[in-house]
Specification:
It is a single chain. The protein contains three helices and eight strands. The protein is α+β, with helices and mostly antiparallel strands. It has one domain: Nucleic acid-binding proteins (OB fold (Dihydrolipoamide Acetyltransferase, E2P), Beta Barrel), CATH 2.40.50.140. The strands form two sheets. A five-stranded mixed β-barrel has the order 1-3-6-8-7. Strands 4-5 form a two-stranded antiparallel sheet. It is globular, with a radius of gyration of 23 Å. The C terminus is likely disordered. One of its GO terms (biological process) is DNA replication.
Length: about 160
Amino acid sequence: MSDNQMTVYGNLGTPVDYRESKGFGWAMFRVGSTPRFFDRQLGRWRDLETVWITVKASRTLAQNAAASLKIGDPVVVIGRLRSHTWEDKETREQHRRDVLEAATVCHDLNRGTSTFTRNEPAAAQEQPSSDGEAVAEFESSYTTPAPGTPAEPVPV
C-alpha cells in the first residue's frame, strides 16, 4: 500500500510549540490557507473560508522550525495526513484530530526572501576540535585546485 503526501501553502497562524522528552523533540503549529479566486462578475478577487491545518514535526525538523518560523510567515509544508485519536481520562470522551506529519517545512519564497544556515553535524557540535596543530596542518596542506581541474576529495 502506498502512502500519499500532501502539500499545504499558507501562513503560520500560531507560534511553534516545541517540546522535548527523553531526547526526542517535536513541534506543533497551525497553518492557515485561504483559497482565493477572481470573481469575473464582480471584477475583483474573493477569498473563501480559511482552512486550518495542524502540523506536527519531529526531531531536527522540529528544532529548525521552532528556530526559524514566526506567526504570519508564508510557509510550504509537505507531509502525510494522519488521524490521531485519544480518550479523555476524566470524561471518557473520544477525540480525533487530523494532523499533517511534516516531512518538509520551508518559507514560501514566492512571497519573500529567507536566509539559510546549515546545521552543524552532530559530531562537530559534541566534540569541538581542541587540537590546534591538526587544524593548522590541514589548513596549510589544503590548496585550491587550478581552474579547470577537478577538486580532490578532502580526507576525513
